[in-house]
Amino acid sequence: MGSVETAPVAIPTVDISPFTDPNASEEAKRSVVEAVRHACTTYGFFYLAGHGVSKEKRDGILNCAKKFFELPQEERMDVWIGKSMGKSFRGYEPPGIQTHQKGLLPDIKECFIVGHEVPADDPEAGTFSTGPNLWPKSLKDEEFRTPIMEYQATMLELSKVLLKLLARGLPKAWGQPPDVMDDLAVNPSMPMRLLHYAPQEVLDDRQFGVGDHTDFGCIAILLQEMNTKGLEVWYPPTETWIPVPPKENTYVINMGDMMQKYSASYYRSARHRVITSGTSHRYSVPWFLNGQLKLKCKALDGSGVETVVGEHIRQRLIATMPEAGKALR
Fold first, then answer.
1. Are the C-beta atoms of 244 and 311 separated by less than 8 Å?
2. Helix, strand, coil shares of the chain as percentages rounded to 5?
3. Buried-most residue among 47, 127, 239, 256 (CB within 10 A)?
4. CA 184, CA 189: separation in Å to the nearest integer?
5. Do 109 and 95 form a contact (C-beta atoms < 8 A)?
6. Cβ count near 215 (within 10 Å)
7. pLDDT by residue (tens digit) across 215-239?
8. pTM for this prediction
């Protein structure tokens, strides 16, 4: 009989700094590529160290989240997603809108969604995930809008490094060049969510901060507030949930469904969830690289399977948001 695999206690940590260091050896760079490849094919998740994003910038975006959710409910609703232009899907998403699985109660999370800034007079404005962002009137630009957009730009640059790593980690037999994924980060859909999970006085086994799901896009870069807990990742070989608590000076990276499709299931889009708490507030900021919405991604193994990025994302949102999703049809 074969040995039974022991359930992992943590996802891997990968320090990518040698990959971006011009003085690092090729061997050191290859080691980073291999570590990312192993993490994304085995777990679909890893802690990212050596990312180069300052603590000041990370603390700043979490403070932006707290500032928004400290606003009175009527001010938050003044920028709710129902007021976004057409199908652009920007602004405040109240709790109870999204349900990921049949049999579960709606998620308790609330979030503020920001995307690529597209002027209202742009010909594409109002199409799916494209348009002007909504901003609360009572928060000054220099304390809210400006740091958010600067952080968004930082995340886009970081995602470009991750795409280089993922491209180099593909099977050599596929014969793909190291820049094969670069187009995903050219004028992309890149929603960012400022998230708040409020403590729940009554806990229900059917309700989560975010229910069991996979992400829809290519890559997620998640910043978690320290000294909190709740995120868990499903590990199929042992059929167990791995806790993913915040780890000092790291991000959590995970693959989404679009990356799994593009890589012909080589990179794994892993199920994950956020457990609710009866006592603590939890703040986090995930940034998502979806890719160019009109990009036709042919599976990189040469099988010919093609997926249009925007249509894939739109249909997934509609499926999990019965009411709010009607605006996306």
1. no
2. 30, 20, 50
3. 256
4. 9
5. yes
6. 25
7. 889 999 999 999 887 799 999 999 9
8. 0.91
